[in-house]
Amino acid sequence: MISVENLKVEFGTRPLFHDVSFVINDRDRVALVGKNGAGKSTMLKILCGLQKPTSGTVSVPNGSTVGYLPQVMKLQDDTTVREEARKAFAGHIHIKEQLDKMQQEMTERTDYESEDYMALVDKFTQTHERYMMMGGENYEAEMERTLTGLGFERSDFERPTREFSGGWRMRIELAKILLQHPDVLLLDEPTNHLDIESIQWLEQFLAQSSSAVVLVSHDRAFINNVTNRTLEITCGHVEDYKVKYDQYVVLRKERREQQLRAYENQQKEIADTKAFIERFRYQATKAVQVQQRIRQLEKIVPIEVDDVDNKVMHLKFPPCLRSGDYPVICDDVRKDYGSHTIFSHVNMTIKRGEKVAFVGKNGEGKSTLVKCIMGQIPFTGTLKIAHNVQIGYFAQNQAQLLDESLSIYDTIDRVATGEMRLKINDLLGAFMFGGEISEKKVGVLSGGERSRLAMIRLLLEPVNLLILDEPTNHLDMPSKDVLKEAIKAFDGTAIIVSHDRDFLDGLVSKVYEFGGGQVKEHIGGIYDYLRAHNAETIHEALNGKAVAEEKTTTAAAPAAKQQTPSSAKGETAQPGTSQPATKESWEEHKEKQKKLRKAQRAVEESEAKIAKMEARLKELDTLLMDPKNAANMQLVNEYSTTQEALDKENDRWMELSEKVEELG
């Protein structure tokens, strides 16, 4: 389907990767992985033809189509959701217009016996057959199914796209790409703006699709459910693993251990050779041996070891001025778009120094309320911002607002003032943009790198109210941890819009839940909020898992009825109104689930080892059946050793499986 041969990409004098060759076959499901900045997004751009390599070739068969969803996209604002999605069927619509025109011509003409008329009939017939093969009039129904699968309501179809958040508009773009049914789908972080239901729908869609798929994602579960092959960009080249991501992680660890052993052996050989040369360099009797060692040294090809990124990003928000005691107060705030109410009766008081979370499904108004607080859009009701409040805002599309023509250094140099201009290099180094990297253009940065650069800009001005809208999108796990610690140490107030449970854990002391046009307040951390909903994830809590599955206890039911008048209006809801239905405590449940996941991973790792040993035994069987190898003791010993190891691993697998059954 797509053939890549001897690919090389350089930025300036720095090679990103070289001598890369691989083939994407029909119905391949490929995870493209590598550390931040390794070139994953660049590889996708090259595969779809948006970027040219320094050298090498990318071959796509004539007639094959490629659909590409980038991390950063310029979106249209002048159409409705239905009209924008319908653009995916431009080919259908054009053919339908041709058919209508030919049909009109056949109706008006009377020269039924002429050759021209018969040619027109033949052309109409062929075009109509082609149109029906493409789905005919069914494309409208397919379009509606896809939009619904990605979370849109039918009432959304006629709404202007400008009324939707960036995340929802990216869903429209994803729908357009899926509806085109390209031969190859290239998806760069497709789950960043999807909720759990939409992710599950996308998994099923891709599983049933006839397209080949190449995707980049930080969502481990999504990668495992969709892909069956892993391409890793490492040390400037590509390693091809014909396995799912979880199996790749095991194999990569083994491969790196082998690399390290080979590297250490080679370094010892080099050291010994150099020592011999230095020792006997000036002895005439050893001149021949010395020259031999020098030639050996020159012929050695250095063994590369996969990079492990141990650099640490240090992030610290500057000291801020003291704001008023209550930076944000909402009193009956309401926002409507035409006849569509986003939320109403929002009553909220955020104290100075509080860290609070906004959670809710996409489109329920989290980003909209943020824009109200920022004064960017009109609303009804009263919204007070305290005196001395200085807002620092990190939007979902913050990375898209960067000037792609500027270098990393110039991007920061243009906004830095005073003494900070003397510390730009230190600041960039702290965010892993030090040295030559600071001269890279913004246009070639990955999504994670752009997000880090946008975060630097936020650091340049002292603020006392941080508003972060999905700040962890495009960030890897180490970067998320560093950002979390920086917010915890921040002197001021913070509002964090996020669905990332682990990121919010231990960070926020209050949760505001958006849903059904209301905003409910929950005192306590994110796990207090989850416990009140008898849920394990934010997505389960937002979807009312406890109610839908009727798992609340009879003891919890009376407590749920004892709402205050304010909570009945949707203004506040105190935690503790429902308890987990199981007898074990929440902490015990969490610990048990943690042990179960660990045991399941151990079983999977054991199965991978067993499969590997069984495959090797088959190879050895074949080799030993050859008369030439009958007396090869090395193969015989390896067979015995492998068989013994396999027996032990099978026993271990039995023990691990029993443990999983006990915990389950």
Folded structure, characterized:
By secondary structure, this protein is an alpha/beta fold. It is 44% helix and 17% strand. The protein has 23 helices and 18 strands. It has a 6-stranded mixed beta sheet, sandwiched between helices. Strands 14-15-16-12-17-18 form a 6-stranded mixed beta sheet, sandwiched between helices. A 3-stranded antiparallel beta sheet has the order 2-1-4, with no helix packed on it. Helix 3 packs antiparallel against helix 4 and helix 9 (245-280) runs antiparallel to helix 10. The two termini are 43 Å apart. 30% of the residues are buried. Residues 549-601 are annotated as: Disordered.
User: At the first level of CATH, what is the class of the largest domain?
Assistant: Alpha Beta
β-strand number: 18
Work out the helicity level: 40-55%
Q: Could you describe the largest sheet, including whether it forms a barrel?
A: 6 strands, mixed
Q: So, CATH architecture of the largest domain?
A: 3-Layer(aba) Sandwich
Please name the fourth-level CATH homologous superfamily of the largest domain: P-loop containing nucleotide triphosphate hydrolases
Number of domains: 4
If you compute it from the alpha carbons, what radius of gyration comes out, rounded to the nearest whole angstrom? 30 Å
What would the CATH topology of the largest domain be?
Rossmann fold
* Main sheet strand line-up: 5-6-7-3-8-9
